[in-house]
Specification:
- A hairpin with a 4-residue loop joins β9 and β10.
- α1 runs parallel beside α2 and α1 packs parallel to α6.
- The model has no long low-confidence stretch (mean pLDDT about 90).
- The protein folds into two domains: about 170 residues, 3-Layer(bba) Sandwich (FAD/NAD(P)-binding domain); about 120 residues, D-Amino Acid Oxidase, Chain A, domain 2, CATH 3.30.9.10.
- The chain is of the alpha/beta class.
- The longest helix is centred in the C-terminal third of the chain and has 17 residues.
- The chain has nine helices and 17 strands.
- Helices cover about 30% and strands about 25% of the residues.
């Protein structure tokens, strides 16, 4: 049986970030990725100015721009604190991969089907068994590692978008609780396409109804999506911890995305770094800031998930953000 000090399941942002932060140690590291290429994930790729502490500007698709929020036929522009861009996920991951190639072992197109925590062993679809000292589950919202730990996932969102083969100029968000539940519709330009999609907690609206409302919005706004690629995925934001003995969960597998915004790139990077710190015995707690923000965001989600309170919460938030003092503090909370 093959043995590694650290086995990382998932070659996405969280998994490769963890590997990168471990790569200069003497540990023997393996990353196992089920897809045949990196970066295959349903994601609008949005990042805000706060993410630039962790993401070099060279990976941005555009210079940071203002964000326009639409609510009840009114426009609200955020330009000072919440300017936004998108990143090229594949370039970002390939940069990590090129750095890691000579430092770790990598299995691409290999699926982990089971984890035996008591035996510190993973089992691949081929039947091959690999043992570990530490295991990192960075395998997304439908994590095999999380399932084998017996952790439930009760807070679930659906995210969906069309990749419109057209370059839109502006970053926009449309708040409409009747059509998009607890979430919103976004327009996020990328280099070769624009992601137009929406997301919501599935308790508030069914995926089928959400898809119908997205299609209707596109038609009403005269946007041709007949040649656009449609993608959808379930998003787990049910955080129950990230460390379970010698097994860790990172990013979406840990439920670290924001249930409020669907923000996942930042917590993926931070959790990957945090897990590397823990394995190396570094006591630096860089994940705690995000956990505090996530906890506060989910208190706000309490209102958004209830029909009777949602409109009140959205209206109050928009009014407060028109005041500079409240805008700055509110955006520090969510971004």
């Amino acid at each position: 049986m093959k043995y590694y000090d650290v086995v990382i399941v998932g070659g996405g942002i969280a998994g490769l970030e963890c590997a990168r932060n471990l790569s200069n140690s003497k540990l023997k590291i393996l990353v196992v990725e089920k897809n045949k290429s990196l970066g295959e994930k349903v994601c609008a790729n949005g990042v805000t100015i706060g993410d630039l502490r962790l993401i070099p500007k060279k990976f941005l698709n555009f210079p940071l721009r203002k964000l326009t929020i639409h609510y009840r036929n009114k426009k609200f522009i955020l330009s000072n604190h919440a300017i936004i861009s998108t990143i090229n996920r594949k370039e970002f991951l390939l940069n990590h991969l090129n750095y890691l190639k000579s430092k770790i072992d990598l299995l691409i197109g290999k699926k982990v089907v089971d984890v035996l925590p008591k035996d510190s062993t993973i089992i691949l679809e081929s039947g091959e068994e690999i043992s570990f000292k530490f295991l990192v589950g960075a395998d997304g919202s439908c994590s095999v590692v999380r399932r084998c730990l017996g952790l439930p996932s009760e807070k679930i969102e659906i995210g969906m978008h069309y990749k419109i083969p057209k370059n839109f100029k502006n970053f926009e968000i449309f708040l409409d609780s009747a059509n998009f539940g607890s979430g919103y519709l976004w327009v996020f330009p990328n280099k070769s396409y624009t992601s137009i999609g929406c997301g919501s907690d599935i308790e508030c609206i069914s995926p089928k109804k959400l898809k119908f409302n997205l299609d209707s919005w596109l038609e009403d706004n005269g946007i041709d999506f007949s040649d656009a690629k449609f993608e959808a995925a379930m998003l787990n934001y049910d955080y129950r911890g990230y460390k379970f003995g010698n097994i860790f969960l990172a990013g979406d597998a840990a439920g670290l995305i924001s249930g409020f915004l669907g923000k996942g790139i930042y917590p993926a990077i931070v959790s990957g770094k945090q897990i590397a710190n823990d394995i190396l015995g570094n006591k630096c707690r860089i994940l705690d800031i995000w956990l505090r923000k996530k906890k506060l965001q989910e208190k706000f989600m309490f209102f958004l998930k209830r029909n009777a309170l949602r409109k009140i919460a959205l209206s109050a938030s928009i009014k407060l953000m028109s005041i500079n003092f409240f805008q700055r503090n509110f955006l520090n909370l969510i971004l």
